[in-house]
Design brief:
- This protein has about 400 residues and is α/β, with parallel strands linked by helices.
- It has two domains: about 220 residues, Rossmann fold, CATH 3.40.50; about 160 residues, 3-Layer(aba) Sandwich (Rossmann fold), CATH 3.40.50.2000.
- A seven-stranded parallel beta sheet has the order 3-2-1-4-5-6-7, with helices on both faces. A six-stranded parallel beta sheet has the order 10-9-8-11-12-13, sandwiched between helices.
- Helix 1 packs across helix 17, helix 10 packs across helix 15 and helix 13 packs across helix 16.
- The chain starts with a strand and ends in a 13-residue tail after the last helix.
């Protein structure tokens, strides 16, 4: 197939879903054109990586000032800010009238590109929503430890719900990463008319990159939490871990260290390093070594959507994981066999202390976690499912008929 893959931000090791889907599609023999945006030199350098795989890349810069202008223009209207944040119409001009068998568009931020390609070019479009963003916003509006995160979520919640519900009628197929998010997204269809089919396509892991390293000894009594540390859900997790869970652990084990690993730590996250046992790394060349060296990964989700890559990557590295039950809802992993579950600070502290004292259990959970990843989260198998959805979208494609007058331009 000749696939146009539209991503409103540069795929990278952090944005691993589009990056690995692109590589897998090329490896499976498809012609793939990536239409994308970059914000800085580090992101622009990723173009060479993807071109080395055989992926054709068309891109333009997306400076922060342009995103800010887009959002300011959208404020008086009914369009969610997420839907305009990464919209640059001249990106589409780079296609020069080319045609494709199918278009894959990722995220709410990319939806406008898909709408244009369907309406103006008459192409079948698969929209990979990834998460139900309004479901995430409903949780963030109440639970986020970031004041900005709460305010932004409340501002954009109602308009995002309307827009996501409307989008269900605009595309040929919709992808989502978890059954919980699928239910939340489907509930936004209030028209009474059938929308596009919604399929759950979970995240995978590069299981050849994220691997246990037997040549490296794990640091004793060390907890890792990884992710982009400016993202409000990760900020909330980090604050919850250090402020509410760890004091209960330190009361019995004052030697336990916490590594908060990831780029752009917010002020709230940076402040956590005031404790002598907490390390806030900021940007690191690779997250993998921290996962391979830590005693365990602790992911105390207060809220979130979709599948947490940080959990999958830790399990792939053979690192025992303790997380919340809402994270388990998006996985097929079994509690107590593949990972441990806790929901309250006391439960987390109890599980952490128990695991610290049980090296045999650390090894068992690490081994089982790796086996689970190999069985359920390989990108090649996930891409095969996506191919089938492409074929269905092409076979059933009809010229688009928009189902409402909601303004999208």
């Amino acid at each position: 197939m000749n696939v146009l893959f539209v991503v409103p931000y540069m795929p990278s090791l952090v944005r691993s879903r589009p990056r690995n889907l692109l590589r897998s599609l090329v490896n499976r023999g498809h012609r793939v054109t990536l239409l994308t945006l970059w914000e800085n030199k580090e992101e622009r350098d990723e173009i060479e990586v993807m071109e080395s795989w055989g992926c054709r890349v068309l891109s333009k810069p997306m400076p922060a000032w342009l995103s800010a202008i887009n959002c300011l223009r959208a404020l008086p209207g009914n369009a969610p800010l997420q839907s305009v944040y990464s919209f640059r119409p001249d990106l589409l001009h780079m296609l020069n009238g080319e045609t494709f068998d199918v278009v894959h568009v990722e995220h709410l931020r990319g939806a406008r590109y898909g709408l244009w390609l369907k309406r103006e070019r008459g192409l079948p479009v698969v929209w990979d929503s990834v998460d139900c963003i309004s479901y995430l916003f409903r949780q963030a509006a109440e639970e986020s430890k970031s004041l900005l995160g709460r305010l932004r979520s409340r501002l954009d919640l109602e308009r995002t719900e309307r827009f996501e519900g409307w989008l269900l009628h605009q595309f040929d197929h919709v992808l989502i990463t978890s059954p919980v998010d699928k239910a939340a997204l489907a509930a936004l269809n209030v028209t009474g008319e059938a929308g596009a089919p919604i399929s759950v396509i979970g995240h995978g892991v590069d299981a050849e990159y994220f691997v246990p390293d037997t040549a490296v000894s794990r640091e004793p009594a060390t907890i890792v939490l990884s992710g982009k540390m400016s993202y409000h859900a990760n900020v909330t997790m980090a604050v919850y871990l250090v402020r509410e869970i760890m004091p209960l652990v330190w009361a019995r084990r004052p030697d336990v260290k916490v590594w908060l690993v990831g780029k752009d730590p917010s002020r709230e996250v940076q402040a956590l390093a005031e404790h002598e046992n907490v390390v806030v790394t900021g940007t690191v060349p690779e997250i993998r070594p921290f996962l391979q060296k830590a005693t365990m990964a602790v992911v105390p989700m207060k809220y979130g959507a979709g599948i947490q890559n940080k959990i999958l990557e830790a399990m792939a590295c053979g690192t025992p994981v303790i997380t919340s039950s809402n994270a388990l809802a998006a996985l097929q992993a079994k509690a107590e066999k593949d990972l441990l579950i806790a929901n309250q600070p006391g439960e987390f502290a109890q599980k952490i202390l128990w695991l610290l004292d049980n090296v045999t259990e650390q090894k068992r959970l690490g081994k089982n976690g790796r086996v689970y990843i190999e069985a359920h989260h390989q990108w090649d198998a996930i891409t095969a499912k996506v191919e089938t959805i492409y074929q269905q979208a092409i076979a059933k494609y009809q010229k688009p008929v928009l189902h409402s007058k909601l303004t999208v331009a």
